[in-house]
Amino acid sequence: MCTSCGSLEDALKLFDELLCESSVYPWNVLLRGTVVSGGRKRQYIDVLKTYSKMRELGVELNVYSFSSVIKSFAADPAFYQGLKTHALLIKNGLVDSDILKTCLIDLYFKCGKVKLARSVFEEIPERERDVVVWGAMLSGFSHNMLWRMLKKLSLFWLMELKL
């Protein structure tokens, strides 16, 4: 609640009073609140500090932890941090999550890495490509001004067939 009202400092103070360092849930709330709360550079730095602290304390990161971290990297854009996180997802067996794949698609497009975004998209089985995944692709192509490529790939046509 503190972060949604724009008070990250109050949220951190409240978080420090909690005695549940090993539970991922309060950490995820803090990560998500930091991502939502504002300024691009500050957001990225704060999320990275929290993420690093979680890893240092041995907190078991989950899909929601990583989705917040990847979203903050996409906002910066922090391509190399995103690549390292993608590798960590593969190592921890979390790369099969459609939520994380959609976050990675968004990250790679925002970093201008269209081929990597397309590669992640291709890893998602056709029957699992929902409106959110398609939206990330359309938004990413738009962000990179690749309308001609979009037309060549016939994503609109494919999306109509699959949905």
TrEMBL record:
Record-linked Pfam families: PPR (PF01535)
Entry annotated with the keyword DNA damage: no
InterPro entries xrefs: PPR_At4g14850-like_plant, PPR_rpt, TPR-like_helical_dom_sf
An annotated GO BP: RNA modification
GO molecular function: RNA binding
The keyword Repeat is annotated on this UniProt entry: yes
Key words, A-Z: Repeat
PANTHER family tied to this protein: PENTATRICOPEPTIDE REPEAT-CONTAINING PROTEIN
Protein's name in the database: Pentatricopeptide repeat-containing protein
Organism: Pisum sativum (Garden pea)
